[in-house]
Amino acid sequence: MQEHAVYERARLSRDARFDGQFYTGVRTTGIYCRPICPANPPKSENVDYYPSAAAASEAGLRPCLRCRPECAPGTPAWHGTSTTVRRGLRLIAGGALDEGSIEQLAERLGVTSRHLRRLFKTHLGASPLAVAHTQRLHFAKRLIDETALPMAEIAMASGYGSVRRFNDAFRNTYGRSPRDLRRHSGNAELSADLATLSVRLPYRKPFDWQQLLAFAQGRAIPGVESVADSSYRRTVRVNGNVGIIEVRDVPAASSLELRVHGVQTIDLFPLVQKVREMFDLDAPVDAIRKVLVRDPFLKRCLKSRTVVRVPGTWDAWELTVRAILGQQVSVKAATTLSGRIVARYGAPLDKPTSERFAAFGLSHTFPEPADVVRAHFNDLGIVGTRIEAIRSVARALLDGTFSFDAAQCPEEFCSRIVKLRGIGDWTAQYVAMRALKNPDAFPSSDLGLLRAFDGDAKQRMKPREILERAEAWRPWRAYAALLLWNSDANSGG
Length: 493
Known about the structure:
Blueprint: H1 2-13, E1 23-26, E2 31-33, E3 47-50, H2 53-58, E4 62-63, H3 83-93, H4 96-99, H5 102-109, H6 113-124, H7 128-146, H8 151-157, H9 163-174, H10 178-185, E5 196-202, H11 209-219, E6 225-228, E7 231-238, E8 241-250, E9 255-261, H12 268-278, H13 285-292, H14 296-304, H15 316-325, H16 331-345, E10 347-348, H17 351-356, E11 364-365, H18 369-372, H19 384-399, H20 410-417, H21 425-434, H22 447-451, H23 463-470, H24 477-485
Helix pairs in contact: 3-7, 8-9, 15-16, 15-19, 15-21, 20-21
């Protein structure tokens, strides 16, 4: 009841801080809305509250065409959910239920399908299938409103498999065909540039784009990544196709604009989910802050930095190589070494693409494990132990004894990767933090974390001591680490 009272106040005041954190369902109209919906608020006795859009949809409600629930910032998947649900949501966002079953998803997560359904119902108020359906529907609705893509391509991009299923889903949900909805949006005359797709990715404020860019700029791999003109750009390889992504902030729309070049439309949905993770758009920033401000030192850090997000990565293998190169050297040195590997072993872009993006220094894709498993790395300035560590990870990925599968438990992932030659706890925790998006990963031996407290202590803190102090930061220790790293430009991988 207390939670409902909070929701009621947020709904009546149209508090943007709650946008995406819950949805209101109106019994008299059969519609569900965001808490910021501009329509006249319905009577309280006619309103129900739902923890997710999927829960409202499963209750038989249809999305509001005025406030457009598909444009809400992502529901914070980590806030109040189990790790199993969090990993399940990542897999569903990657298309795990487009062709697979709930039973197969549950098996990957190491639980029974019955238990998985129970967990989703408890934490999200909806079944895994309802979550997948709502994600597909909302993604398709945004493509209808924001692009001039043909309906057949939107159907494929959204994972419907056929135009018939796509049309049926929209008629059943909205009572209109997709073409009618496009006419309703007023964007029917959009220019159809199919070579360059543009999609907006909503986020919840506060959002510090410049902070994320600064983090990326110091670590941008020459030839692969670029930070310029307040934008992030990089080369990508998706299902054998090579392309470019560009990301910039659109503060007036509380969104990032993602522009995609050279990627097939059918690959757009998982690509968008990956970019959301790269910039941590779904982080429950209010919940994180409430925990971190309990520590006096972190509270002082948060006075100058109201929000902190943990940057993800486009490719876990690439990040792992970068982390290995960063062991016991500066961020700048690791970036230089990464660029040398790319120049020698990366795949060059085709001539038209390289010419188009030459001004940003984009020239190669990052080498695959097969490209470096037998590489000598001679004359690159990389020490032998780092070379062998890179090879050991490449071999393990190629023979299947190790993977970056998002289904695995973060603790199990760390225990597996440290068994590889040259990989220690720091590298394992760093990769779990940014590649597996484990919000509680914490590289306690990192020098930048240990010296962050130098001004408050008579002597430098030891890893055991910072681990003890970090117990109070759970389950957001990764965010505490980023907050501490932000004060030291030469730390943080």
